[in-house]
Specification:
Layout lengths: L1 H18 L4 H17 L10 H6 L5 H23 L5 H14 L1 H25 L3 H18 L17 H15 L1
Helix pairs in contact: 1-5, 1-8, 2-4, 2-5, 4-5, 5-6, 6-8
Length: about 180
Amino acid sequence: MEYLFFVVCLTAAVTDFLWKRIPNFWLGSWFLTGLLLAGLGRGSISEAASATEFLFRHPWSWQAEIRYLGRAASVYLLLAPAWRLRMIGAGDVKLCSVMAAFLGFEAFCRTMLCSLVLGGILSLSYMIVTKSFQRRFGAFLAWFRRCISCERWIPYRKERDMDGTIPFAPVVLAGYLACWRFG
């Protein structure tokens, strides 16, 4: 069933790379598909040995659907503050919620850690190549100082300047492939 989530991740990566957005309809459709599959099987998709075992192991499981919804909701609530501060896109938060719901917490944490490391390496490489490290790090420190002086969190980017930002969904795809292949 890893192939199913691969399709979700691949399409999200392509749309995020090309248009800097991940369509809600796409993520919502896959979320509902995963919810249906969670009810047919038990637990997360990655716990089943094969697609046949996943689909036909148990007739129906409300507990599995509740766990599926709980994983999605907890990851959404965990990442929502980063979205509110405009450090991550709303589509990326929803993609991570779908990933946690589909794969389970353990696989989500491994994939997310791998994605963050790859994203950090990619961002650092981009800043070195474009010679923007000092300017970007200075802007980050200025934002952090502003938050401390105002004694509240201020959105990191008030205006949506998309130049120079790296879409997160392709990095999630790379992290997923790295964990799936080597994990």
